[in-house]
Structure prediction request, 163 residues.
Amino acid sequence: MKYDLEILTYPKDGQAVLDFMRRNEAYFLFQDAKPVNEQTVEDFFFGTLPPGKYHEEKVLMAGFFKDELIAIFDFLKNWPEENTWVIGLMLVDENWRSQNVGTELLEDLRGYFGLNMVSKLRLGVLEENESAQAFWIKNGFKLNGQSRKDEQGRKILVMEKQQ
Prediction:
């Protein structure tokens, strides 16, 4: 299939992102233990960043099939090192999962990463989220041996992939 990728901005895309998040609220209840509301959208666009990082270094994108928003992405440039981008969020609409859409969107993003001199992608995944771990491993990510705890005390595993 052919997907379109677009940069998201606030407030222009705020309502579309809120509608998408509400359709996929199960993820946010699992991940953050909170229901989706306007604050969820504000956190997506303007949430806390690591020390020394600025919102201009975030890239928020959406994947579309025709005019339908089917995925959202949150990338942080050059963290924790130059040319490494962190995937803070990649969420495919639950009606589009298990159809290879996530893999195809990642493949579509390779050119964008190349243009931006990205040499490594990095992400954190909840240890208990085995389906997400399997997805990332299928797409070439490897555990790097690092982990941390989230606010609820759950273990987050760090995964990386060379570009």
About this structure: The chain is about 30% helix and 35% strand. The chain has a mean pLDDT of 96. Strands lie at 4-7, 58-65, 68-76, 84-92, 120-126, 142-149, 155-162. The radius of gyration is 15 Å.
